Amino acid sequence: MSLSKIMKNGKALFLAYDQGLEHGPSDFNDKNVDPNYIIDIAKKGKYNGIIFQKGIANKYKKEIKKSKIPLIVKLNGKTGLYNGEPYSRQLCTVNEAIRLGAKAIGYTIYIGSSYEDEMLRDFEKVEREAHKNKIPVIVWIYPRGKSVKGKNKAKLMAYAARVGLEINADIVKLKYEGRVKDLKWAVKNAGKCKIVIAGGVKKNEKLLLKQVKEIMSAGCSGLAIGRNVWQSKDPIGITEKIKKVIWC
Ligand code: FBP
N or C: which end of the chain has fewer CB within 10 A? Predict the structure, then answer.
């Protein structure tokens, strides 16, 4: 699977903006509530991809196309109001994503959830369809649910990475848990499947850049980051600093 449309020299920085569904408006202010503001950051920051759910991908199709930033459509999701064992429902098909202009698709699987079985089953069809159409598959793999409560998060990170390889993801998106040595082990477990890391809640710049250095020194391919960029007072400034570490 060629990843050349969404990676540069084997590395990538993606801008994630599916938080409106996952968390609701609490992540937003007057500026970043507007998808056009995000498209503008992606364009000025020359991101390798911008991640939207189907609604924004469809309603802002013209602006996304004009930006020339590769579109990554997230095919499933859930709201932050949902209270049961985590299940990310499919909301868009691979064919719809392709019609919207997607250069890659994203999918979330909560390993350890009592709905893991359904998510793996749903994913199998998505993976087959996407690869048949030569569309790269990025999988957010987050261990969550009753059965993983209290388990070692650093060890689960390596398990999540391995699942990405086993289910034929091209890129697995993980949360960075534990230390660099744990992340190195996760990278080993992912084999030829690449790893990008989520940004998480907004943190101070020094800590963020320290983590980006650790992420890259562990052998990851980059980040798929959201709040730490578009909640920043200087989104392009922080983008440039992150890129400097990734492509140093
Ligand atoms: P951030 O960089 O803002 O953390 O975004 C990464 C991401 O994976 C988003 O794509 C997604 O909306 C969100 O985090 C999900 O976070 P969680 O499930 O932990 O609430």
Answer: C
Residue nearest to atom 18 of ligand 1 (CA): 22
Give yes or no for residue 227 CB within 6 A of ligand 1: yes
Are the beta carbons of 197 and 174 closer than 8 angstroms?
A: yes
Q: What is the 3-state secondary structure (H, E, C) of 198-215?
A: ECCCCCCHHHHHHHHHHH
Amino acid letter, 140: W
Ligand 1, residue 106: give the atom nearest the CA.
10
What is the pLDDT tens value at each position of the chain, 248 positions in all? 899 999 999 999 999 999 999 999 999 999 999 999 999 999 999 999 999 999 999 999 999 999 999 999 999 999 999 999 999 999 999 999 999 999 999 999 999 999 999 999 999 999 999 999 999 999 999 999 999 999 999 999 999 999 999 999 999 999 999 899 999 999 999 999 999 999 999 999 999 999 999 999 999 999 999 999 999 999 999 999 999 999 99
pTM assigned to the model = 0.97
Which long-range contacts link 175-179 to residues 24+ away (Cβ below 8 Å)? 175/142, 175/200, 176/200, 176/211, 176/214, 176/215, 177/153, 178/153, 178/154, 179/154
| Domain boundaries of the chain, sorted by first residue | 12-246
